[in-house]
From TrEMBL, chains A, B:
It comes from Paenibacillus pectinilyticus. Pfam families: AP_endonuc_2 (PF01261). This is Xylose isomerase. GO terms for molecular function: isomerase activity. Coiled coil: none annotated. InterPro entries: IolE/XylAMocC-like (IPR050312), Xyl_isomerase-like_sf (IPR036237), Xyl_isomerase-like_TIM-brl (IPR013022).
Length: 270, 270
């Protein structure tokens, strides 16, 4: 158990499972943490989700996800803020203080304005999140998602956004899949000292089988996962380590098998 | 003709054509420049390629491509250097002074060492290229190609590599597909003043249909192409503008149709 005390199953790794199944699967495999996704929480219901997680003795490492701020119209942007407020409430209810932020995509061709909409959205959300004791964890995504998921595509951008606030209000989430290519990776991790709210692992496999569902199990690809983990820990981060793998092939195998393999690879490759 | 005097067909846009067909296609459409690829030149033969290009009244904007420096063993790295020397000779023979460099992928998990191998390879190649009057144009690729095509994934890295040399020896090539997401894009273009050796256009379409063959025709995606062109021209670059589109669907349509559409979109979206 000691070996796995920081291990968390991000629910997307076993996308084929409902939240109830994922909770049961973690309990069976003695994985102590879970990171649920909002659409799965909604399926099961918030209070049932909370109760089942608690009854299974699990802790919630983060809630995925808030963000998605940029939109063409002010009213649509306000709707996004309102939805983010609900996400904050859900995070608090589920007992985690980290809401992972996937900041949102281009509403048109103007990427600079979209980045400003992200900054504005965060500014609006912070006081609300603070009142719930929830921190916003900005997760920069890989630049290949700049058009359709997040215009925040580097640790530098995420750090700059976060530094406008206290570290106990806004921080960053480091996912090796999104940042391993960055020539400035280790400087930016160091820069985030005191502000890292989550660490996500998977691998980059060659060839990438799919733009969205093409991540690999740790050890199957080219990312220096241990080296990045060491850099993250050097900043003082000693919280949960989420395994988050979007991969259609992995989703087609039994969830228990995935969780078992994830535990093995966590020991050998994280 | 005046409108198209800087337009170049990068041969990958009509991948279905042989070099002979591409030359004839450019001549028919009065596209004044062409950027051949080495494997297509090899099919036709170097001297025939040179003659047909000359006879058609075309100019060669660049030769694609040199690079691919990192490899596990020293002997393999030397083979790559030797191949790059042949690429330099071919560029000179075809009458272009720009060899586009796709710097090469990870031989193992150590991306920092791979980047050093790129720097070492360029250092070895520069004196040879200089003796032929050929400039090395470092083209940073999108970070999604870091594992299997180029560890040089930002304009910052490309500028840093190039700045170790005189601008008439090593410069950079700006391809909008590879760099549009970069928060530091306009600073880095400005930094490359006097060193830009090529400008490539296409578009980023949503969703990207394929990691490699998923680029779009200008105007079909989200890239601010005109804005980037203006920034590039502000540095003084007034050379050819290559249209380089890797797209299976476009390759399946008649080449003449692609060239016709490329000319229209060049006027309206570049």
């Amino acid at each position: 158990m000691e070996d796995f005390k920081r291990l968390s199953l991000n629910q997307m790794t076993t996308e084929q499972w409902s939240l109830r199944e994922a909770i049961e699967g973690c309990a069976r495999a003695e994985v102590p943490w879970i990171a649920p996704w909002r659409h799965k929480v909604e399926e099961l219901g918030l209070s049932t989700s909370k109760r089942l997680i608690k009854d299974a003795g699990l802790k919630v490492s983060s809630l995925c996800r808030g963000g998605m701020f940029p939109a063409v119209t002010a009213s649509e942007r306000q709707k996004r803020i309102d939805d983010n407020k609900r996400a904050v409430e859900e995070a608090a209810e589920l007992g985690t203080d980290v809401l992972v932020m996937v900041c949102g995509s281009l509403p048109d061709r103007d990427i600079q304005s979209a980045r400003q909409m992200v900054a504005d959205g965060i500014a609006q959300l912070v006081p609300f999140a603070k009142s719930y004791g929830v921190k916003l964890g900005i997760e920069p995504l890989h630049p290949m998602y700049a058009a359709d998921r997040s215009v925040v595509v580097t640790l530098d951008l995420a750090n700059t956004l976060a530094e406008a606030y206290q570290p106990n209000q806004v921080g960053i989430v480091v996912d090796v899949f999104h940042v391993w290519w960055d020539p400035d990776l280790y400087n930016q991790i160091h820069r985030a000292t005191g502000r890292i709210l989550g660490f996500h692992v998977c691998d980059w496999i060659i060839p990438v089988p799919d733009m969205l569902k093409g991540r690999g199990m740790m050890g199957d690809g080219v990312i220096e996962i241990s080296r990045i983990r060491q850099a993250v820990e050097k900043t003082g981060y000693n919280g949960p380590i989420e395994v988050e793998i979007f991969n259609e092939q992995i989703w087609n195998q039994p969830g228990d098998e995935t969780v078992c393999q994830m535990k093995e690879r966590y020991l050998t490759h994280v």
